[in-house]
Amino acid sequence: VFTSCMLNIFGVVIFLRTGWTVGNAGIALSLFIVLLTLLISLIPVLSAIGIIDHIDHIESGGIYFVLTHILGARIGATVGILYCFGQAASISLFSSGFGESLAETTSWDNHWAARTIALIAALTILGIILAGVKWVVKLQLLLLAVLVISVLDFVVGTFAHTDLANGLTGYKEENMVKNINPKFSEGQSFFTVFGVFFSTATGIMAGINMSGDLKNPGENIPTGTLAALGVSGLLYMLFALLLGAVCTREALLSDYMIASKVALVGVLFLFGLYISSLSSCLGAQYAAPRIIQCIGRDSVIPLIKALGKGRGANQEPYAASIFVGLIAIILILIGNVNSLAPVVTMPFLMTYAAVNYAYFKLVMCMDLQKRRKLIEEGVLVDDTPKSPKNEETRLVSKAEMMDGLLAKDYGTGIENGQIVGGNTVPDVTEKSDVGEKENLDKDTKEDNVGVPVDNGGVTVDSIGVTVDNVGISMDNSEDDAGNNTSMIVDNRGNEDGGNQGDTNTDVDYCELDVGEETELYSKENEKEESKKKIDNLKPKPCYPKSHFTVEIEQKRWTVYSQLVNRWISLAGAFASVFMMFLIHWGYALANISAGLLIYIYIGQTNPGVMKGIAYDFNFARWVQSLWEKLRRRSPNQHRVVKMDTSIPYEITLFQVTEENPDFSNRERRHHSSVVKIISP
Prior knowledge:
Amino acid/polyamine transporter I; mainly alpha; transport; SLC12A_fam; AA-permease/SLC12A_dom; two-stranded antiparallel sheet; elongated; 53% helix; 8 strands; Solute carrier family 12 member 9; potassium:chloride symporter activity
């Protein structure tokens, strides 16, 4: 992970644009740009680490899998496509840097010469990927060693020689004084310079994209990614300080290859530059098609479903690789390094914002589940302020619901007030015939469609219960903290539908949303023996477990888990979006608009995609609840909690026949007889 991240982070921009950055922003602001870049990159890395700590098994798909697991396939695919576009743009950026440096080295002072070299490099990388030459990927340690040699060549060169003709004066205090303050050239500003330099940090998610290939991703990804970010940050600052100390400002602004002239042996430095460019291209060309393949294979976006197909024994994504390569070629023909860098920056900033928000939403949803569990157990009182929209909505425990059901007579043999949580229920019809009781037991086993009660094995049978005006819905109901309060009642009275705690029965209950009415029912297992008691019958689950039943908890504890904070992640999400507009508001609007179009397209063509495990939390409702709390900041001097014991819903009886004492001695089932007509 460390090697892959270093090869993707320490890219062509460091070799070609660090001097230009110092010349425009000065040494002080250049160091600030480096620190700001590291900070903006560090927050999503920590957020991703926090998310990984809450996932049992990390599958392939990289950033797409992480976002889909938390935010749902709709958002995951949207951000995943934009991220892959950013990877394709980075291929064009690194190829353009390679072409620019090689053209200047060979004295081909022509933009089209640089673009031609860049096109050849991009096509070569695409050919290597399509040929399946995996030995290139396995040479990462050797490539990293070449980068280390080129950095040492640069550092030694600052002490070893001078070149006044090219603006290399050696270490002078005069250079530090003149270069400490910013002096932006025409058309440049702090944010344009930052947009160019920030593209160096776009490879920080390379470790997460390797999630499917790692034996222990929960430990390897945090360690390798943070180590690579720290080492590259130190090298960034080292380059900025040394170039500002030994070069004149005019040389920094006018000569993109000034760093190669500072190096002791320029060939080694250039070799490192070329290796850096090609390895970054190779990493992006290898990772992006696999993310697109995962999206196409999951059929989230029908338009690119064909890109999900693979060839060969390893299902290599040839179609997706060609698609990414074509995008890179088009961008190479359009722009150069300075114009492509902001284009590369935008999708990655959006991805970082999505990762930060995903961790925030995950932790908020986990806290919501814990709060619901405490409310169920009676430890907490649900004193959440109700908005006018949801004033009538409240959670109903199983005990309350069954007390209300059993306290009334709905033609089931239970008289008013006879049972409220008791253990025995005398039948309304006393039967002395043993055969009648056996028939009743047999018919109950075969046709029971009721609401089993844990108390004494009571079954409320042969009724249809309609629950009106509860305000509970599988999909649409939310509490005032912006969180879904859909209730799946189980045999312990849980309201969140989670499998929390131990139980001695497998009875599952379902809530079916039928518009304004909600019907609670269960189906019993038809293979149970006829002589077993009704309370031991095990009904089949009537609805598959969904995302509502997923209990979020931290799966592993690491040292890095202590560094993650939900509020820092939320601030990082807003900061990433804010920086997008500061760098280039046009590109920012274009990326956001593209994301919205993809999001709407998925909703129209594939509305049934998987929702994330943090779906219960709703950010808009959470903000609204905070605003409502701020409006009621005056403390209540006398606070009284009044428990409402009445039934919060109406119950309507559905019964085929009315009560009649004429046939009270017969069991409750349909009877038939054969009448033979005798002809006269």
